[in-house]
Specification:
By secondary structure, the chain is of the alpha/beta class. It folds into 2 domains: 3-42 and 233-422, 3-Layer(aba) Sandwich (Rossmann fold); 52-227, Glucose-6-phosphate isomerase like protein, domain 1 (Rossmann fold). The chain has 16 helices and 12 strands. The strands form 3 sheets. It has a 5-stranded mixed sheet, with helices on both faces. A 5-stranded parallel sheet has the order 3-2-4-5-6, with helices on both faces. Helix 2 (22-43) packs across helix 14 and helix 9 packs parallel to helix 14. It is globular, with a radius of gyration of 23 Å. Bound molecules: 5-phosphoarabinonic acid (PA5). 5-phosphoarabinonic acid (PA5) binds at residues 85-88, 147-149, 152, 155, 208-210, 294, 429, 432.
Length: 462
C-alpha cells in the first residue's frame, strides 16, 4: 500500500498559526467523513451520479476485450498514436511515462520486447502535428482516437487530418489502423466509427474524462504497449476496499481531502502543489492538476449559492524545481500545501564515482544518486517546516502498476470527498463546456450561429 504522512501539516511541527491539530480535526469531522464515504458508495451505482469510475476496478469485461484486442494487434504496429485532450489523454500519458522504461520511444524494438512506441498528441499546434507526421510511418501506426463526447474540436480535427493522410497512404486498409474510444451511442465519432467500421471501445456512462483513466481510455493504450493491466486492476481494487473504510483515522483519501479542505478554508492555503521526487512521475502532476482544478473549481455550490471556490493545483518536480519554485514556497506567501511523492526504491541504483576526492564535490563520491534524491526530498521538507510551510508526504515502495493505480485511485476518491466537503458538484465542468461552445461558434459549427455573433462582439472589447 502507499503511505500518507501528514506530520508536516500538524501544529506540533509547523506551529498553530499555520498547522492543524490533526487528531482534534479528525475527531471533529469523523461523522461527516463517515457519512460522505457511505453516501458516495451508496450513490455510485445510480445513473446520473457520475460515480461509475468507482466501479472500474471490477469491469472484467472491458479488461477482457482490451486484452483480446491488444493480443490480436501484437507485433503489427511500430507506433501507437493517441489522439485526445484533457481527461482523454492525461491519465494515459501519466501512467505510460511512469511505467514504461525511460526514453521508451528511443529504445530498440528488442529493448521494448517488440512492443510499439507510444505518442500522445494532446494539442493542436500545427508544427507538432506536422512534426509527428514527419516522424511516424502511418502504415505502421495504430491510431487510438479518444473522446467521450465524440466532438471535441481539437481531437476531431487531429483525427480528420490523420484519417485523410492515412487513407491516401493506405487506401481502404486504413480502417485497420484506427481504433476509437468513445461513448457507446452518442457523438459524431461514434457515428463515424460505426459507418467506417473501426474497432471501438466504450467510455462508460457516468465516468467523466478526468476520472476515466482506468476505463478503456487508459487500459487500451497501456495494454498495447505491454503494461500489465491485471496488476493495475488489482491496485484499484485493493485501494477501493481500503477507502471504503468510513473511519477517517484509517482512510488516507479522506485524510488528505480533509487536510486540504481545512488548510484552504481555515488557514488560507488555497494552493495545492504536487511535487513527485521522480521524473517518471512528472505527468502524475499534470493529471492531478486537471483532476483537482476541474473538479473543485466551481462558481456555485450545491445550494445554488455563488461561491467561486476551489484550491489551485500547481505542478512541480523534485529535485528540479528546488532550483526554481522552492524559494517562493519557503519565503513567499504561506498559502500552499505541498504534496511530496517519494519513491523508496527506484528500479535501478546509480553510484556516484569516488573521483575528485579532495575537492568541494568529493563528499558526493561513493554515495548513490538514489540517496541524493531522497536526501533532497527530506531536506526540502524539513526546510519548509522551518518556515512553517505545510507538507504532506506520500510514499510509494516502488513505481509499479499496482502502486501507481493505488495512487491515482486514492487521488480520485480524495477529490470526490473534497468536493463533498466544499458542497459542490465535483463531476461537472461548465467552465470547460463554455469555452468548447465558443470554439464551435467561432469555427462556424452549425447550431452555434447565435453564440458566434455574441462572441465576436465580445472579442472586440475583451
Ligand atoms: O475531464 C473532462 O471532462 C475534460 O477534460 C475532457 O476529458 C476533455 O475536455 C476532452 O473531452 P472529450 O473526451 O469529450 O473529447
Amino acid at each position: 500500500m502507499i503511505k500518507l504522512d501528514y506530520r508536516g501539516v500538524s501544529a506540533d511541527v509547523i506551529g498553530s498559526e499555520h498547522g492543524l491539530n490533526i487528531n482534534d480535526e479528525f475527531n471533529k469531522y469523523k461523522d461527516t467523513i463517515a457519512s460522505i464515504i457511505t453516501d458516495l458508495n451508496q450513490r455510485k451505482d445510480k445513473p446520473g451520479q457520475w460515480l461509475q469510475w468507482m466501479n472500474l476496478g471490477y469491469n472484467e469485461e472491458t479488461v477482457w476485450y482490451v486484452k483480446e484486442y491488444a493480443s490480436m494487434v501484437e507485433n503489427r504496429f511500430e507506433n501507437i498514436l493517441v489522439l485526445g485532450i484533457g481527461g482523454s489523454a492525461l491519465g494515459g500519458l501519466a501512467v505510460t511515462e511512469a511505467l514504461l522504461k525511460p526514453y521508451w520511444n528511443f529504445l530498440t524494438p528488442e529493448q521494448r520486447n517488440n512492443f510499439p512506441r507510444i505518442f500522445f498528441l494532446d494539442n493542436i499546434d500545427p508544427d507538432t502535428i506536422n512534426g509527428i507526421l514527419d516522424v511516424l510511418d502511418l502504415k505502421k501506426t495504430l491510431v487510438n482516437i479518444i473522446t467521450k463526447s465524440g466532438s471535441t474540436a481539437e481531437t476531431m480535427s487531429q483525427y480528420m487530418i490523420i484519417k485523410d493522410r492515412m487513407e491516401s497512404e493506405l487506401g481502404d486498409y486504413y480502417r485497420r489502423n484506427i481504433v476509437a474510444t468513445t461513448d457507446k451511442e452518442t457523438g459524431v465519432l461514434r457515428q463515424l466509427a460505426d459507418q467506417e467500421g473501426y474497432k471501438t471501445f466504450v467510455v462508460p456512462d457516468d465516468v467523466g474524462g478526468r476520472f476515466s483513466v482506468f476505463s478503456a481510455v487508459g487500459l487500451l493504450p497501456f495494454a498495447l504497449v505491454g503494461i500489465d493491466i491485471d496488476e493495475i486492476i488489482q491496485g484499484i481494487k485493493d485501494m477501493d476496499l481500503a477507502l471504503k473504510n468510513t473511519d477517517i483515522f484509517n482512510n488516507i483519501a479522506a485524510q488528505n481531502a480533509l487536510i486540504h479542505y481545512l488548510m484552504d478554508t481555515q488557514k488560507g492555503k488555497d494552493i495545492s502543489v504536487m511535487m513527485p521526487y521522480s521524473s517518471r512521475l512528472k505527468y502524475i502532476s499534470d493529471w492531478y492538476v486537471q483532476l483537482w482544478a476541474e473538479s473543485l473549481g466551481k462558481a456555485y455550490n450545491n445550494n445554488g449559492e455563488c461561491v467561486h471556490i476551489g484550491p489551485t493545483p500547481v505542478k512541480a518536480l523534485g529535485a528540479t524545481d528546488q532550483h526554481s519554485q522552492i524559494q517562493l514556497y519557503n519565503e513567499g506567501p504561506n498559502n500552499k500545501v505541498i504534496n511530496f511523492i517519494r519513491v523508496e526504491n527506484f528500479d535501478t541504483t546509480l553510484e556516484i564515482p569516488n573521483i575528485f576526492e579532495y575537492t568541494g564535490i568529493g563528499y558526493l563520491g561513493g554515495k548513490t544518486i538514489n540517496d541524493l534524491m531522497n536526501a533532497e526530498a527530506d531536506s526540502t521538507r524539513v526546510a519548509l517546516a522551518d518556515y512553517s510551510r505545510p507538507t504532506i508526504t506520500i510514499s510509494l515502495s516502488e513505481i509499479n502498476g499496482y502502486n501507481l493505480a493505488q495512487l491515482l485511485y486514492m487521488f480520485e476518491v480524495q477529490t470526490a470527498i473534497a468536493g463533498e466537503l466544499y458542497n459542490i458538484n465535483t463531476f461537472n465542468q461548465p467552465g470547460v463546456e463554455q469555452a468548447k461552445n465558443y470554439t464551435y461558434a467561432l469555427m462556424g459549427r452549425s447550431g452555434y450561429e447565435e453564440s458566434a455573433s455574441e462572441i465576436k462582439s465580445k472579442m472586440s472589447i475583451a
